Amino acid sequence: MIKNNLGEMIFNENDVCDLLMRGHDAESLKNMLVDETVKIEEAINFVERMPELIKHVGYPNVIMNVFDQEKQANWHMPQKYKDLDIVQYVLTLCNNESELQRCGEELLLYQERDLFNLLRYLKYLVDLMTENNVIWGVGRGSSVSSYILYKLGVHKIDSIYYQLDIKEFLR
């Protein structure tokens, strides 16, 4: 929001939506001064149609665990990736006993954290980027300590060679 020359507060579309999501009465907002680009009726209608959970994201009354569970259960990827036996796939990428050992240890940690869908999605993402000739970085941060991510092609850092501990990634 900004102040005009008369010191009056002028609200923009983000301000209006924020006030609505915080529970302000829609009728009272109709009388406030808004930027000429704001269609206040559309903003009110948009916020009123939002699911109850999304209305409160970022505000104290949201149950973040419920929100996270709902979002993590809905991965937007083709069915063949959703059905992929990621454990078997990762193990077939291994070339020797030390790779099998490391992948087995990591797979247990991913399983404990219910992250197999994440691995499936990353496989899909790497395939999609490869098909479309998208270039991505060598690797970044603690993710390079995951040998499975290396085998999936997410990054190019061999964590076995550099003796990186998987616990640095999955803390």
Keywords for this structure?
single chain, 171 residues, mainly alpha, two-stranded antiparallel ribbon, 50% helix
Global morphology: elongated
Q: Indicate the multimeric state.
A: single chain
Q: How far apart, in Å, are the first and last alpha carbons?
A: 40 Å
Tell me what portion of residues adopts beta-strand conformation. Answer: under 5%
Widest sheet: strand ordering: 1-2
Radius of gyration: 24 Å
Per DSSP E runs of 2 or more residues, the count of β-strands stands at: 2
Domain module count: 2
Structural class comes to mainly alpha
Along the chain, the helix and strand elements come as: EEHHHHHHHHHH
Proportion in helices: 40-55%
Question: What's the overall average pLDDT, rounded?
Answer: 82
- Low-confidence regions: none
**SS field, number of helical segments:** 10
Report on this model:
- This protein is an all-alpha fold.
- It has two domains: 2-72, no CATH class; 79-168, no CATH class.
- The protein has ten helices and two strands; from the N terminus they run E-E-H-H-H-H-H-H-H-H-H-H.
- The chain has helices at residues 13-21, 26-29, 40-49, 52-55, 64-72, 79-82, 86-92, 97-112, 116-131, 147-152, and strands at 2-3, 9-10.
- The protein has a two-stranded antiparallel ribbon with strand order 1-2.
- A hairpin with a 5-residue loop joins strand 1 (2-3) and strand 2 (9-10).
- The longest helix is centred in the middle third of the chain and has 16 residues, at 97-112.
- It starts with a strand and ends in a 19-residue tail after the last helix.
